[in-house]
Design brief:
single chain; alpha/beta; 2 domains; 7-stranded parallel β-sheet; 4-stranded parallel β-sheet; about 35% helix; elongated
């Protein structure tokens, strides 16, 4: 199993157990700081996601150790945990804060990095998808060109001397730090397991690659039940949702163009004669009973 997806699932299960993201971020940042604490001047590059939040916490811990710390931060919409730690950083005079909004700034940053013994990269982490965009690409090139010691957080965007992953190795050469994810997050079923059960979407899939749900139900007594089920299937992530119902029912619910309708031979109630037709309908999951009546 992909450790990137598994790591996210464990975070979700830990949160469900009461060990929320802000606590995990605090523990992660402290572990990062410990690995960089032998250096006196540290530059920390932070994105706007939880990976960047880990870097912000590390910057705070390093500053409390008496280190000279400068944070280079991307701008943009931040996760809740990142925003909370970013507001703390903004209040600390002991930490220098600089926004990076344009790749042109990297010319100046390249010169500045010569004075830092260690660079912490917490730009994207496991959120990396495809080609890097500007100004991140120029930032990565600038860090790679530096002779400073480079520490990458969780999943590297740079050529790092050390990749520090949390709970699970995200790359083959990563060092693993444990940040308080309970054993029960692995052993017990939680929201993360639901996340793992849903296939990841890469963008090149065909229609139907993420499941076809067939809902069989409805009668003259309960018309709307199969419709509600079929719509719920779409909202939960299914690609195709099919409703098979008696003609009396379909005539009254077939207004949603997102659904596929199969009219059964019976008029008011499902009967044994409909089974052959149902077996011909291609599907991955079957829901039977909603509104069938007695």
């Amino acid at each position: 199993m992909d450790n990137l997806r598994l790591g996210k699932a464990l975070d979700m299960n830990a949160s469900y157990l009461g060990v929320d993201g802000i606590l995990l971020m605090e523990n992660a940042g402290k572990e990062i700081a410990l690995r960089a604490s032998s250096y006196e001047k540290i530059a920390v590059f932070c994105g706007t996601g939880n990976n960047g939040g880990d870097g912000l916490v590390a910057a705070r811990h390093l500053s409390s150790m008496g280190k000279k710390v400068r944070v280079y931060s991307l701008k943009g919409e931040r996760t809740e945990e990142n925003q909370r730690n970013f507001e703390i950083i903004r209040k600390l005079d002991s930490i220098e804060l600089e926004y990076v909004t344009d790749s042109i700034q990297c010319v100046e940053i390249r010169d500045e990095l010569a004075g830092f013994g260690c660079i912490i990269e917490a730009l994207i982490g496991t959120g990396i998808r495809g080609e890097l965009r500007q100004p991140v690409k120029s930032i990565v090139d600038t860090i790679n060109a530096s002779k400073s010691y480079k520490l990458s957080v969780d999943y590297p965007a740079i050529e790092a001397d050390l990749v520090l992953s949390f709970h699970l190795p995200k790359t083959v050469d990563a060092e693993v730090a444990y940040i308080g994810i309970p054993l029960e997050a692995e052993l017990q079923v939680g929201p993360g397991n639901v996340y793992l059960a849903v296939p990841g979407r890469g963008g090149g899939e065909h229609k139907g690659a993420f499941g076809r749900v067939l809902t069989v139900g409805g009668s003259q007594d309960y018309i709307g039940a199969p419709l509600l089920t079929a719509v719920s299937a779409l909202r939960s992530g299914a690609d195709l949702s099919i409703v098979a119902a008696p003609s009396f029912v379909l005539e009254r619910i077939n207004s949603d163009p997102n659904l596929i309708y199969v009219e059964l031979g019976s008029e008011h109630y499902l009967n044994l004669g409909d089974v052959k037709k149902l077996l011909e309908v291609r599907h991955d999951a079957l829901v039977v009973g909603n509104g069938l009546g007695t």
